[in-house]
Amino acid sequence: MPAFLEAKLKKEYPDDPKAPFKVMNALGYMHGNKETEKGKEADTQHAEDVAAGKTKSPFGKPKKKIGWRQVATEPPTDRGQR
Length: 82
What we know:
This protein has a two-stranded antiparallel ribbon. The protein has helices spanning 3-12, 19-27, 37-52, and strands at residues 30-31, 34-35. The protein has 82 residues and is mainly alpha-helical. A hairpin with a 2-residue loop joins strand 1 and strand 2. The termini are far apart.
């Protein structure tokens, strides 16, 4: 099982001890209580990245958050005006 991911998920969900395993099952790193090939590959890839001095998140880049206020790229239309 990817120990780095388990530790990260335990920090994220401190109140639910089953949550890390539910997430790893959903991501395909585990199947039930057994580690899958994808989980083994993620664990070895993380170990290689740490040894090389870089770390890689298994979740990819975080998405850019956009607030509810956005700047209009086009000028408003003349709807309703005569």
